[in-house]
Request: fold
Amino acid sequence: MSIQTALVAVKTANATLNTLIGTRFNPDKLEQGTALPAVRYQVISRPKVYTFGVIPNISHPRSQMDGYAATSVLRTTLATALRGAFDTY
Reply:
């Protein structure tokens, strides 16, 4: 499973977040005119594979998510939903 597939799976599994943003969960950039609320995510680092397939403990992938909403209430709701969905991972 790729990192992007895993992020989408976690987003989809969280009912609150999935209801808020639906399919507006985009890698790398948001297109101009995207309806809000929406989330943009980037994979910052990927696991490194070392010689003989040994993976050290510091090999966890890192990602960054930026949430966008039209009002402060929606921003707070979106931020809470993002934390609720991804903090356990």
Q: What stands out?
A: The mean pLDDT is 88.
